[in-house]
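User: Quick sanity check before I run a bigger batch. Here is a single chain. Can you write out its predicted 3D structure?
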Amino acid sequence: MADRIYLDHNATTPIDPAVVTAMEPYLRDFFGNPSSVEHEHGHVAALAVDHAREQVAAAIGARPNEIIFTGSCTEADNLAILGVARAHPDKRHLIVSAIEHPAVIEPARALEREGWRITYLPVDEMGRVSLAAIEAALTAETALVSIMAANNEIGTLQPIRMIGELCAARGVLFHTDLAQLMAYDVVDVERDHIHLASLSAHKAYGPKGIGALYVRSRKPRVRVAPILFGGGQERGLRPGTLNTAAIVGMGEALALAQRSAAAESARLRRMCDAFRDRLLAEVAGAQLNGHPTERLSNNLSFSIDGVEPLALIRRLRAQVSFSASSACATDKIETSHVLKAMFGDTARARAAFRIAPGRFTSQSDMDGGLDALLNEIHLLKGMVRPAA
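Assistant: Done. Predicted structure follows.
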C-alpha cells in the first residue's frame, strides 16, 4: 500500500507511531483487568485507564469523571440518544438534523417507532442548520437536541457554540458528535455549552474499536440511562471489561491532536485550497459541495457534471484512495442522505465525491493525487486535458 496515495482521512486515519508506542506495553506486558484493582496487575491497568481518561477530558475541557469509554463513537451516539430518552420518559421530543451520521439518525428512528416525536431539521445548500429553525422546533417536551459539529461527507461546520447557548437558555440538553473535529480543531465543552459529546479515536490517529461519551456532571448534571447491562463498569453506563490498550491509545491520540490541531489545520487548509482552486479552474462543470469557508480544514467535496464517482474511484484504486458519497450496497447504489438533504435526488447529489488529506499527507501526495484525478476526469468526460 506504500505506493498508493491515501486521501480518505474522514473515513479513518492511520495510527500515529507515538500512539502505537504508548499502546504497546498494554498489549504485551501490562495485561491486567483494570477492574481487578486488588492486585498489582489490575492496579497498573487501572492507572493507565485513569491517565487516558484525564487526557481525553483535557482535550475537550471536561472533568475526568465525565468521560465514559465505549466501543466506538457509534456506541457513544446511541448511548447519548437512547440514554437521554430513557432517562427522561416525560419528555418525548428530540431534535436532530437531516444530515446527522446514521449513528444518530437510526437511534432517533428507533425512538420514533416507540412513540417519541422526532424533528429532522433541514439544511441549506451549504449543509448548515438554521438557528432559527432549531429555536422554532424547541418545545417544553424537548429532551435533547443533537447536531454534529462537522459533517464527514461535505466538511461543513455547524455553529455548535451558538446552538449550545440556545439550548442552555431554553433548558434543553445539547449533544454533538465530535468525531470529525477533534484532530483539527479545539473544543471546550464548558465554553460551548455542550452537555453530551461523542468522540472517536480512529478519526484522530488512534486505534479503531474505541470511543467515548462526555456526560456533563454539573450545571446541569445530565441523566443518562444505560442501554447495555452487565458488570457495572463506566459508572454503570457501559458494562464490559475495559480495552486498556485501546483506551491508552485514544488518550494519547487526543493529547497529540490537542497539541497539533492549530498548526496542522492551517497546513491542511493551504493544501486543500490549492487543490480546490486547480480542480475548479481546470474542470468545467465542477462544483464544491459544503460551506466554502466554514468547513473542516482537510475536507473537499466535489460534484462534476458527467463524471460518475464510483467509476472514478475504481479507475484510480491502484493510485489514490478517496470516497464517493453514494454508498454501494449489495444490489443497489444509494444517494447519500446528506447530499439529498442539500440538493434533493439530483445529478449533483449523485455525483459527489470526497478528498480528505491528513497528518501524514505531503504536498507531493496532494499534487500526485490531483494529477491522477484530473487525468481520469478528462478521460471520463471524453476531453483532452489542457497542457500544464
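The chain has two domains: 5-11+262-380, 17-256.

User: Great, the batch can go ahead then.
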